[in-house]
Design brief:
There is one protein chain. This protein has 461 residues and is α/β, with parallel strands linked by helices. The protein has helices at 11-23, 36-42, 54-61, 72-78, 104-116, 133-141, 164-169, 182-196, 209-240, 244-252, 273-286, 290-317, 345-355, 368-375, 388-392, 412-418, 434-440, and strands at residues 3-7, 28-32, 66-69, 81-84, 121-125, 150-154, 174-178, 204-208, 326-330, 359-363, 383-384, 397-400, 424-427, 443-445. Helix 1 crosses helix 3 (54-61) and helix 12 packs across helix 13. It is elongated. The structure holds nicotinamide-adenine-dinucleotide and uridine-5'-diphosphate-glucuronic acid. Uridine-5'-diphosphate-glucuronic acid binds next to helix 9.
């Protein structure tokens, strides 16, 4: 039996470890966190994150070989392998503010491991970190002076929220970076063996530590770059009567380009894309590569442009004033099938509409609590409504901001009849049947396609 510990019971720790537990019943897995409420929620029937399929796996493993705890120190001392999946947000102060990764939680964890260890251990970076962080981690851990040895590995996580269970059960690849020393190779092999319980060996890639750390930032930067690229083209489509879906389909059929991650949208959100790209930008600046930094920075700038463009198109289409107008936002989560609202474009649009004094109503099947929390003070000025029909009642406009499949099933005829006329739909996810909505009487504004409107005012001229 191996004692596995995961520090950080967030989206990553909380969705990866139950799956390891389910595949490796012979190992004991403990997930610890300093956040008592989070741990209590993991121990309850109401898990702190909404992730399809996860409840069942947690129910099957919890109390058998999967445990949740706030006793970080005690569990560190018992562990053989420690995964660290604490948060690594963008630093908001001092040198690198607004771009660099804030490593305070990370470093605290390293020191805590050091203080509570009485045996040698493998420490695995699961959080997304700047390249060469493992070096600092190794220095801290191996400064113990009592003969303990720590091998630090990089094992970045590539799962996406909403499909975390599927991604972890059947990953495209597992990446493990380690040192080219004898004990480094042994540590890598131990982790390979753990994953090989359910992941085919040819999908387990090993690399040097720095390649592994950097690959995680680069993977997110490339994914986000594709979205910014198609979103940039969506703006041009709106001017030229080209249809961005048709363009994406046409280019995606080229195997060299590929069809994934070409869905034009109101913008990408989530806790990682922006933070990881800014971190990459900071690293490039740090290493004296300003041209490379500017190149990647543009991916984030394009995303901010897309969000702002969406909100200002709404205002312009609604006769340049939305003050006092009820506007229903369908979706607050940054994507479907998650309750996560971190960096959600829906909340960016909400903020922009509130600035114009709109009367904003938000509806979302799972993310209202987080939306209210993330909006902070502004939440006071927003109505939260579970029922989308009530949210749309007497509204001048609806904006589809999260691609929840529920929103394709609604009775839009009923919604149209309950709205103020002219009624507007701004589809920030190109989710709905626009022609049908137009025939019902809606003025329809998709992303990257000509609007379907009977109004003379054109916002896209
Ligand atoms: P999260 O904020 O949901 O969870 C992190 C948890 O760590 C929090 O519950 C926090 O209380 C806990 N924590 C912080 N310091 C601690 C300490 N000293 N001891 C114990 N617990 C501590 O974050 P997340 O979304 O799970 O992301 C974690 C890391 O994984 C980040 O580096 C992120 O970039 C990366 N990542 C996230 C995703 C994702 O989909 N969310 C995917 C891949 C990688
Ligand atoms: C992303 C990556 O896909 C994961 O591989 C990575 O592990 C993770 O970041 C991370 O490091 O946190 P995630 O942010 O959970 O996962 O979700 P994605 O499916 O990548 O979507 C991100 C955003 O892009 C969402 O707002 C989504 O709606 C948007 N998106 C995605 C588009 O607008 N168009 C697309 O074609 C795809």
């Amino acid at each position: 039996m191996t004692n596995i510990l995961c520090i950080g019971a967030g989206y990553v720790g909380g969705s990866t470890m139950p799956i390891i537990a389910s595949h490796c019943p012979e190992h004991r897995i403990v997930i610890v966190d300093i956040n008592e409420n989070r741990i209590a929620a993991w121990q309850s029937d109401q898990l702190p994150i909404y992730e399809p399929g996860l409840d069942e796996i947690v129910r099957q493993t919890r109390g058998k070989n999967l445990f949740f705890s706030t006793e970080v120190d005690r569990h560190i001392s018992e562990a053989d392998i420690i995964f660290v999946s604490v948060n690594t947000p963008t630093k908001m102060f001092g040198k690198g503010a607004g771009k660099a990764a804030d490593l305070q939680y990370w470093e605290k964890t390293a020191r805590q491991i050091l203080e509570n260890s009485t045996s040698s251990k493998i420490v695995v970076e699961k959080s997304t970190l700047p390249v060469r962080t493992a070096e600092a981690m190794e220095r801290i851990l191996n400064s113990n002076g009592n003969g303990l040895h720590f091998d630090v590995l990089s094992n970045p996580e590539f799962l996406a929220e909403g499909t975390a269970v599927r991604d972890m059960q059947n990953p495209d690849r597992v990446l493990i970076g380690g040192r080219e020393t004898e004990s480094g190779r042994k540590a890598v092999e131990a982790l390979v063996e753990l994953y090989a319980t359910w992941v085919p060996r040819d999908r387990i890639i090993t690399a040097n530590l720095w390649s592994s750390e950097l690959s995680k930032l680069v993977a997110n930067a490339f994914l986000a770059q594709r979205i910014s690229s198609i979103n940039a083209i969506s703006a041009l489509c709106e001017k030229t009567e080209a249809d961005v879906n048709e363009v994406a389909h046409a280019i995606g059929r080229d195997a060299r380009i590929g069809r994934y991650f070409l869905r034009a949208s109101v913008g990408f959100g989530g806790s990682c894309f922006k933070k990881d790209i800014l971190n990459l930008v900071y690293l490039c600046e740090h290493y004296g590569l300003p041209e490379v930094a500017r190149y990647w920075e543009q991916v984030v700038a394009m995303n901010e442009y897309q969000e702002a463009r969406f909100a200002s198109n709404m205002v312009a289409s609604m006769f340049n004033t939305i003050a006092g107008k009820r506007i229903a936002l369908f979706g607050a989560a940054f994507k479907a099938n998650t309750n996560d609202t971190r960096e959600s474009p829906a909340l960016e649009v909400c903020r922009a509409l509130l600035e114009e004094h709109a009367d904003v109503v938000i509806t979302d099947p799972h993310a209202m609590e987080n939306a209210s929390h993330d909006l902070g003070e502004l939440a006071k000025h927003v109505t939260f409504e579970h029922d989308p029909y009530i949210a749309a009642n007497h509204a001048h406009a609806i904006a589809i901001l999260t691609e929840w499949s529920q929103y394709t099933q609604l009775d839009y005829e009923r919604i149209y009849n309950s709205m103020v006329k002219p009624a507007f739909i701004f589809d920030g996810r190109n989710l709905l049947d626009h022609k049908k909505l137009y025939e019902m009487g809606f003025n329809v504004y998709p992303i990257g396609k000509p609007p379907l409107t009977r109004l003379i005012t054109s916002t896209h001229a």
